[in-house]
């Protein structure tokens, strides 16, 4: 090998090395630029302000104080849950299209499950460990479901929206007119076939899931009366209501001599098919005294009551 050939070989190797070095430098530079890419600024978020109206709030009950918002991205992503008071809430969310559930999470004897997806979210009545039954509460359940809600980037400008909370419970009043009330010491009862679950996105009961509600009565002018809250919404006027459970009322009377007497009323689907949020079950009974006391059911009737709201 002569000097010229050796010189060319060295230059070729140097040129190749320089090319490799240049490629490595370009890769490092690209990696640094990618790794130091700036995160989106907070101004790209949607600033939202919600206020709530309670036009359907039932009179005679405590008002809700704690409200939960569940945002479900339409495309993909996990649910975002935020809680606030009953007046409204201000917060930020990434711009996107969402489905939204809003409900008060302080309703008595109500729990929530399957909340990870919009379609499966439920409110339900948990059975007590002692009896397998539940008792009626004081704070009703209210809520709304929004199928599509767009949150836009608004550079810190508050986007105010207003929602009217709907009642998700119905109140059943059992009014027992007693002929011979002077012989009765107390009356308790049980309402069977009560909806145990309510689908929050469909805004309707889950008819195949039922439970029993124990209740006590209070004296009235002509006998005794009980008020019971059950999950559900009133059927819309003129529309065929969805399938509803059948209901049965069991009345347990304790008489002054210490004896007891029970009676059962088969209400069928009359409660679920009655319009309005207030349902009256009017019962007429007679206490007969022979050798011992007996209670006889004369008749009963289910009708719509007055829907009283807080103005």
UniProtKB/TrEMBL annotation:
| Domain of life according to the entry | Bacteria
InterPro entries in the record: DUF5119
Q: Which Pfam families match?
A: DUF5119
- Mind telling me what this protein is named? DUF5119 domain-containing protein
Q: Which species is this record about?
A: Parabacteroides faecis
